[in-house]
Amino acid sequence: MHIAPEVREALDAGAPIVALESTIISHGLPRPRNLEAAREFEQIVRDAGAVPATIAVVDGVGRVGLDDAALERIAGEGVAKASVRDLPILRARRGTGATTVAGTVAIAAQAGIRVFATGGLGGVHQGATSSFDESADIPTLASHPVAVVCAGVKSVLDVGATLERMESLSVPVVGWRTDRFPLFWLSSSTHELDWRVETAEEVAAILREQDATRANAGLVVANPLPEDRQWDPIEHDAVVAQASAEAERDRIHGKAVTPYLLGRIVELSQGRSLEVNLDLVRSNIRLAAAIATAYAAR
Ligand code: PSU
Ligand code: MN
């Protein structure tokens, strides 16, 4: 593993750090917006006074903190989507992969980074009772001490089943100033949360309690977009239904499902879903930086 000097210094000083994933860059956003977004995401962390650590595997090395050349590689063609199980294979063959939430959480935990921001978590897919399609994001969060700030899970998933799995696997979930689990592009779902937090200090206190008990579990901080910035629910429902039907028709499976759906949804909405997606990631990064700052102030 290679930790960028700036990230190393922040770790040694106990300064705030926000981990960022790279699958969203390689497989979640269309080129060339993806590279622009990757740079902007890092800048948001810096503007908030924290250090960004974008995580990926480059030529077989797990890298925590990417320089601009590495960001360009990840935003280019031919990069593997790397979940936890792909990491040893990529290392062994000196491959390059962009880490999913699961892959990023595993590497961030190893580096000792406690706070991470992304768009939306992977979860249980519709029809999972027969397909068994459940993202490795959930079990990985159950066994690694990394808090992830996200806008819930994408509405293409079975949201209720995902919440049930998080309960079974003992992944704690708190709503950021909300009582309901957000739906990624949409601010709210019908799913009520058990816990609500109002301040970054409250979240930092939860992290410290986990540290004190060596809980070794993550934390999901569900951060909804304000309602006036969400995607139009009518267009959302129609586009998500169409993209999901097409994925089934084309028998998309395995790691291709999420990138396929996200790509189709951007096309079908003529980019309107993309603007909301970018907006919610920015909002999650700002909140993650505030939480990392509160956590660093020990
Ligand atoms: N959220 C986004 N864009 C993305 C993803 C999530 O806004 O591209 C990615 C994350 O990397 C997440 C992955 O870990 O999708 C989930 O993939 P899967 O369902 O195959 O586990
Ligand atoms: Mn899957």
From TrEMBL:
Catalytic reaction(s) noted: D-ribose 5-phosphate + uracil = psi-UMP + H2O
GO biological process: one example: nucleobase catabolic process
UniProt cofactor note: Binds 1 Mn(2+) ion per subunit.
EC number(s) given by UniProt: 4.2.1.70
Record's protein name: Pseudouridine-5'-phosphate glycosidase
Residues binding Mn(2+): D133
UniProt-listed InterPro entries: Indigdn_synthA-like, PsuG
Active site residues of this protein: E21 (proton donor), K154 (nucleophile)
Record-stated family: Belongs to the pseudouridine-5'-phosphate glycosidase family.
Any single GO CC term annotated in Swiss-Prot or TrEMBL for this entry: cytoplasm
Upper taxonomic lineage: Bacteria, Bacillati, Actinomycetota, Actinomycetes, Micrococcales
Amino acids binding substrate: K81, V101, S135, A136, D137
Record function comment: Catalyzes the reversible cleavage of pseudouridine 5'-phosphate (PsiMP) to ribose 5-phosphate and uracil. Functions biologically in the cleavage direction, as part of a pseudouridine degradation pathway.
Quaternary assembly: Homotrimer.
Cofactors that this protein relies on: Mn(2+)
Pfam families xref list: Indigoidine_A
